[in-house]
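Researcher: Let's do a round of design. I'm pasting the structure tokens now; please hold your answer until I've finished.
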């Protein structure tokens, strides 16, 4: 019997920008800038190819890329 990994499924699922921001900010390491709607929309415009399947966000696909981008593009 194959066991489902619910956490992995949740990380791969496409969600809204607001849901992504909520999960992202909950799991953010100390010292990293928090995601805002404005920053997420800027990232989405800068990296349109990452959103080929619509405007959905997934932790698995976007978290690391956004984190790397956001550490150099956030407002202080």
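Researcher: That's everything. Go ahead.
Model: Designed sequence:
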């Amino acid at each position: 019997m194959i066991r489902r990994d619910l956490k992995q499924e949740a990380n791969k699922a496409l969600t809204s920008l607001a849901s992504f921001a909520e999960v992202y900010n909950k799991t953010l390491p100390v010292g990293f800038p928090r995601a805002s709607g404005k920053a997420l929309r800027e990232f989405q415009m800068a990296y349109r190819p990452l959103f080929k399947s619509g405007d959905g966000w997934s932790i698995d696909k976007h978290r690391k890329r956004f984190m790397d981008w956001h550490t150099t593009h956030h407002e202080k």
